[in-house]
Design goal:
A hairpin with a 2-residue loop joins strand 5 and strand 6. The chain contains 11 helices and 10 strands. The chain folds into 2 domains: about 170 residues, Regulatory protein AraC (Jelly Rolls, Sandwich), CATH 2.60.120.280; about 110 residues, Orthogonal Bundle (Arc Repressor Mutant, subunit A). The chain is α+β, with helices and mostly antiparallel strands. It has a 5-stranded antiparallel β-sheet.
Length: about 290
């Protein structure tokens, strides 16, 4: 079951905008919300589960999530020495309506402001020059200090963030950057992996499926995701297992088979290494 987070839990009665910094863990539940969310990965790496996809994330990744998108961040493992820290800026559509006149005529902004269905359930960007990080940090400090006219300042920071997003979308429409092309290819690969987790997925098979040499496949996969194919596949399968443990009554052996593991000893060892718990403990603690 997907948890619904309502804005009233975070917003002041007369100001529907909120910022925080969170160190992500395995205890946060898969959820959706009745507000728009901007999430910036400030430190560390891990995964974001959005709808039916699992996406590797690292410092500098920025996500724009419309109302109703189901998602959750997860660290790479519970014992990581580099925690996954996310800065969130959430706001109601009326905030966007108020600042719309200051923004470029971008169809996405209008759709979000009018609560119309967006073309995509989520949008991802990369903060290559740390400009978003500077704006998010300044906005977070402003929110914490609550100095005079801080609400106007927060809206001004949001305007700057959205203008930068608009510039990035217009640039990528016309410039065929090699890294962007690699990201598009990896997007197809990750979608294929999500659909075929129960099958034997080897590096050689994946390279053949997408008409690449194994060395080229491994190189672009690690460039875009920051991980080797095998490590990413293991985390993807364990994250799918976590979802099945919580949301189904399948036995642990059935779940292992559904994510491609016939060796139960290996499955238990891998699950414990990544989550810090056995599958049975994880089910009991999250039900």
């Amino acid at each position: 079951m997907v948890q619904l987070l309502r804005g009233e839990r975070f917003f002041e009665p007369d100001f529907p905008m909120f910022l925080n910094r969170e160190t992500e863990s395995f205890h946060v539940k898969f959820h959706q919300h009745d507000f728009i969310e901007l999430s910036l990965v400030e430190e560390g790496s891990g995964y974001q589960h959005i709808e039916d996809e699992t996406i590797p994330v690292r410092k500098g990744d920025l996500f724009l999530l419309p109302i109703g998108t189901s998602h959750v961040f997860r660290p790479a493992s519970p014992q990581t020495s580099e925690p996954l820290i996310i800065c969130n800026c959430i706001f109601k559509p009326e905030v966007l309506q108020e600042i719309l006149g200051w923004l470029p005529p971008n169809p996405l902004f209008r759709q979000l402001a009018e609560q119309e269905p967006a073309a995509q359930p989520w949008y991802q960007f990369q903060d290559k020059h740390h400009r978003f990080q500077e704006l998010f940090r300044a906005a977070y400090i402003e929110y914490q200090q609550c100095a005079s006219n801080y609400r106007s300042m927060l809206k001004a920071y949001l305007v700057q963030i959205l203008i930068l997003l608009d510039r990035m979308t217009r640039t990528t429409e016309h410039v065929q950057d090699p890294f962007i092309l690699q990201q598009e290819k990896i997007g197809d690969i990750l979608s294929y992996m999500n659909l075929h987790l129960h099958e034997p997925l080897t590096l050689q098979k994946m390279a053949d499926t997408f008409y690449m040499s194994t060395s080229h496949f491994q190189r672009i996969f690690k460039t875009v995701t920051g991980q080797t194919f095998n490590k990413y596949l293991q985390h993807l399968r364990i994250q799918r297992s976590c979802h099945l443990l919580i949301h189904t009554t399948l036995t642990i052996q059935q779940i292992a088979a559904q994510v491609g593991y016939a060796d139960m000893k290996f499955f238990h060892l891998l699950f414990r290494r990544i989550t810090g718990r056995t599958p049975q403990q994880y089910r009991q603690q999250n039900r």
